[in-house]
Specification:
The structure is a single chain. The chain is mainly α and 295 residues long. The chain contains 12 helices and 3 strands. The chain has 2 domains: 85 residues, Tyrosine recombinase, N-terminal domain (DNA polymerase, domain 1), CATH 1.10.150; 179 residues, Orthogonal Bundle (hpI Integrase, Chain A), CATH 1.10.443.10. Helix 2 crosses helix 4. The termini are far apart.
Length: 295
């Protein structure tokens, strides 16, 4: 089964153009399913039935897995079995008539404008790493790009003169997003005064580098954000996408067109972007309740 999983992952990467993080999730989910089958010596890919899949999903539920996690695991199994059926590795698809569990759509956690300003004020711009951190945070909030897109940026992906950043999102889709003066200023300061001190290899293409002079990782960035959130005394739960969510919400609150926000975020479906309209409505209700004398 290990070789079949790898063949499937290669197919998703080469034929479907899925992102590395998605491929890693598929690989991890399928290997866990393989472990479940292996615990019962009589089960295999070929003889797994709908009852086998249901038993696996119930097993995940007993483990305390969230509904969203179970839905993702089932989606991985559906895609895997469709591939196996197409390639004649199995004769039936046991997931065929199973539907995904209904997901509760959680509203994203966002920061207020004042909280964003506190967060962005934390980096010590007297140091090279502080200038880098300031540039990263300003760029994220200015553009709403994903953290994975941020750390994958190369020097050639930004145009400071025109005020644009080019990034490659999910499904290898490329988009160009405008950025504001604050982000441009922070990037100029970082590129002129900080990056040359952090990079030892002049051939390094990465825009943002760590203290070793190589490309910063998602994990490295996540540690940086958590550190500054603590220093800014932000009590809300912070995620790597918090600035992305805040970017979208603040744009819509200030009258931005939802189609334009969809394009900047790189959402394939506008329904994904519409969740931010619910956030803005909830916040308007809060403002009304706190401010209107007869609320």
């Amino acid at each position: 089964m290990e070789s079949l999983i790898q063949e499937f992952i290669d197919y998703l990467g080469h034929e479907k153009g899925l992102a590395t993080n998605t491929l890693e999730s598929y690989s991890r989910d399928l290997r866990q399913y393989y472990g479940f089958l292996s615990e019962d010596g009589s089960l295999s890919l070929e003889n797994a039935s709908q009852a086998t899949i249901v038993a696996y999903l119930m097993y995940l539920r007993k483990q305390g897995k969230a509904t969203a996690t179970i839905a993702r695991r089932l989606a991985a199994l559906k895609a895997f079995y469709q591939f196996l059926l197409k390639e004649n590795y199995v004769t039936k698809d046991p997931t065929d008539e199973l539907s995904s569990p209904k997901l509760e759509r959680k509203l994203p956690k966002v920061l207020t404008v004042e909280e964003v300003e506190r967060l962005l004020a934390q980096p010590d711009v007297r140091t090279p790493s502080g200038k880098r951190d300031k540039a990263m945070l300003e760029l994220l909030y200015a553009t709403g790009i994903r953290v994975s897109e941020l750390v994958n940026l190369n020097l050639t992906d930004i145009d400071l003169k025109e005020g644009f950043v080019r990034c490659v999102g999910k499904g290898s889709k490329e988009r160009v997003v405008p950025m504001g003066e604050m982000a441009i200023s922070a990037l100029e300061s970082y590129l002129e005064e900080a990056r040359p001190k952090l990079v030892s290899n002049t051939r390094e293409k990465a825009l943002f580098v760590n203290h070793h002079g190589s490309r910063l990782t998602r994990q490295g960035f996540w540690k940086i954000v958590k550190k500054y959130a603590r220093e800014a005394q932000i009590r809300k739960e912070i995620t790597p996408h918090t600035l992305r969510h805040s970017f979208a919400t603040h744009l819509l609150e200030n009258g931005a067109d939802i189609r334009a926000v969809q394009e900047m975020l790189g959402h394939a479906d506008i329904s994904t972007t519409q969740i931010y309209t619910h956030v803005t409505k909830d916040r308007l209700k809060d403002v009304y309740a706190k401010s209107h004398p007869r609320a």
